[in-house]
């Protein structure tokens, strides 16, 4: 769950209230939830929000500060009991190493599409295991990336939880843009039930290779006239760029 919309470096404490209301509503349903700060909240506000969230026991807080700000992340991690998750902006074992050595990360969220694939993620998972850190791969992406992540999930002891893009909001395209796209949209019929969730779990794929069959004709069809995706962004009242 997103923590906040765009807020200032120093903002009214009331700008954090909606996050507390939303996590309270989710917990009232008997569900667990992680809170994604997206690195868009700066230290004066992140410290406050982490403290406000503690009584609600979220699974984790994700990117409470930008990953470039390692000293501030370490300070924040020492001031809260909530597990700290990050890693989607880290691209190799060399990027990950200082975060493990400083003890500031509890849940490592590398993206298999960005970190060098299955082999590099396996190496990072082994490193993280030595530091008692959980692996939770970042993957709001397509079926090939998810299938690769699940190969890791099946083979490392410190795997914890897997993100998947089913039902995610930015797959809901307008009709003129091709309509709704889901993970299964690019798969052959025999693979469309590969990730049926039962009790929070999916079965391991049994097919060859990554375990799925991609519908290449559907990929070509949907790529016709496709527009270049531009990463969303926030700008503050002065026109300054902010994290999305």
Q: What is the topological layout?
A:
Blueprint: H1 17-28, E1 35-36, H2 43-53, E2 61-62, H3 70-77, E3 84-86, H4 93-102, E4 107-108, H5 117-130, E5 134-135, H6 143-153, H7 216-223, E6 234-235, E7 241-242
Parallel strand pairs: 1-2, 2-3, 3-4, 4-5
Antiparallel strand pairs: 6-7
Describe what this molecule looks like in 3D.
There is one protein chain. This protein is α/β, with parallel strands linked by helices and 244 residues long. Helices cover 30% and strands 6% of the residues. It is built from 7 helices and 7 strands; from the N terminus they run αβαβαβαβαβααββ. The strands form 2 sheets. The chain has a 5-stranded parallel β-sheet, with helices on one face. A two-stranded antiparallel ribbon has the order 6-7. α4 (93-102) links the parallel β3 and β4. α4 (93-102) runs parallel beside α5 (117-130) and α5 runs parallel beside α6. The longest helix is centred in the middle third of the chain and has 14 residues, at 117-130. The model has no long low-confidence stretch (mean pLDDT 90).
